[in-house]
Amino acid sequence: MTLVRESRLEQRTIRPRIADVAREAGVSKTAVSFAFNSPDRLSPETASRIRVVAEQLGYTPHPVARMLTQRQTLTIGVLTPQALSVVFSNPFFGAFTEGVATVAEESGYALHFISPLHGSLARAMSRATVDGVVAIGLSDDHPEVEEIRRAGVPIVLVDSTAMPDHGSIEVDDVGGARAAAEHVIGLGHRDILIIGVEPALPSRTVDPGGVTGRRLRGYREAFAAIDIDIPDQRVVVGPASIAGGIAVLNGVWEDGLRPTAVLAMSDAMAIGAMRALRDMRLTVPGDVSVVGFDDIDLAQHVDPPLTTVHQPIRRKGEEAVRLLLTVIAGRDVARPEHRRLATRLIVRGSTGPVRPSRG
Amino acid sequence: MTLVRESRLEQRTIRPRIADVAREAGVSKTAVSFAFNSPDRLSPETASRIRVVAEQLGYTPHPVARMLTQRQTLTIGVLTPQALSVVFSNPFFGAFTEGVATVAEESGYALHFISPLHGSLARAMSRATVDGVVAIGLSDDHPEVEEIRRAGVPIVLVDSTAMPDHGSIEVDDVGGARAAAEHVIGLGHRDILIIGVEPALPSRTVDPGGVTGRRLRGYREAFAAIDIDIPDQRVVVGPASIAGGIAVLNGVWEDGLRPTAVLAMSDAMAIGAMRALRDMRLTVPGDVSVVGFDDIDLAQHVDPPLTTVHQPIRRKGEEAVRLLLTVIAGRDVARPEHRRLATRLIVRGSTGPVRPSRG
DNA sequence: ATCGTCGGCTAAACCGGTTTACCCGGGCAA
DNA sequence: TTGCCCGGGTAAACCGGTTTAGCCGACGAT
Does the pTM of the predicted model rise above 0.85? Predict the structure, then answer.
């Protein structure tokens, strides 16, 4: 019953295999397997004897071997086109993951994060041992999207370009953005700055079907209604984090732009922008109004509380997993479901009327 | 070359196996394997022909099967005693994960989260297909800790009770807490409230070797130096989130306590406490001073900016993975490393002298 | 002409489980 | 007594790859 193997330098305990338990208990591998998975096929005495031996030996079925035979991993993947080190710096992602985790956990699924491996999402995808994937922010024009779809695992898309043959969850980005823009327009702002979330891959243009594209459309629609065209130079993008917002706003100011209102596509960036403005001794909303997007928990706790477009972040995660689970279960394969959740503007303290002197 | 299988209702493409590619290309399975893993063992023509066939068929080696033979998963686990849906609501965890992800990604490892499965951490652990685990906040007195260790996977502990035979990363909790307490003592506060992070399992007492225990010790040491004993009723715990901080503070106020300073063991809770105070029309630091712990990014952006104990959160994640990778690589098995990183108090705007009227 | 070697490829064993098909002996009904 | 069923167990196939050992023919050296 000695299960230790000596190698050159180290000495690591070898985990016992099912055959070790079988030998020790004087039964077949089958019996051991039965003892764990369908004890009713064994006499109570045999079953318990096997379990005792297994316990003594510290035997646990090898999870990978199980996965192989069962053809399921009880794991769902969360796929992000950006590096995890960047997505986790956005509180939005934390909240989204909370939602994903809630449903995954109650259904007995573990979470596995899939992010570009040495630059390749497809490679990361093919390594991943998951039963299905929730992809967030995956743009249709991502160069590897076809490869990823060919992997053949069920996919649900969140905040991504909709693809007809995959389920998807999104929110009313256009409506939310329009409401935000209409709000600042109503406050008299005409000279604005739009801060967007940069695409996952540099040197790519904004995908009009993606989230950034849709929100941009919403902003533009509102301004178009009062015959104002927002020039491209008033639209800048950066990483979706507080630091990203700070960097973008500072860059814009250095370029000499002096908008009276900032429409950010992410609360994290909006908060960064407010921070940068304060560091320049400008007041919010006195000198500059700021509107965010997302309504992360934090939004109401910053100074001033952030006016923003609310979207049900956690619920997006929850619904995405629920949808994915039905796809995994094999139902609903014929016509994938596409859900769109509502957004709504929440006015707090970061927006105010434009200054008379400048208006 | 038809690879579609009809089942009752659905019709899902079967992923091709290595044998399919072999047959189609007129070679052995071995040759196909070589074409992918050691092409130099094949003639260039054969290798490329095989790859062409594989490409046509959309063949990708089955990741689970690979794991089984290679005996490695290229995945590291992040183990949390709490449900993911709760840990992700603490920005601290996001930052920590950022650090973990940074090093994991650059080393080609994916991330897998391990949290209690139907209440059992050990069960979740035995399901997890990982090469090693970074455990965060795992207390020595956790009922399943022994079972988890017996799983035989390399483990590095972060913010956990130190165990001699596992590597660990921690910070100077005692020193940080002491500095925080000395700071408010210097401002004249004598009547304080300590807000701690509740243990993962309800109905457990505070593990003196755990993070909460160590920080508590630091606070108490500082007060002991001026001969003040902090009664247990001045120490309350709650979930480490903004909501948790709000709930705890409200509860305390309802109980009639009126401390002039609050020492929180987590920034999220400190921020929640400030929020609750503000909702009661109390000012910070005018009426009550608040000190946090962690120095999450957010701490400097709330109103007022939070005085807190800084700890290198991301670095903890990074170092933990680095350490884990050396253990996985098999080096350093003899004497596991224990690293303790420094903390330091950062005074911002949430603390001030005690009010003369109450001092 | 013979032998050794080497490039190119394959058959079979293996990773560690689960599942299918079947065997064996005892009890019960006919 | 025969036949059948059934409880309790096993051998072998299987999941989908990788790896080891070895085969085969060509080519160069002796």
Answer: yes
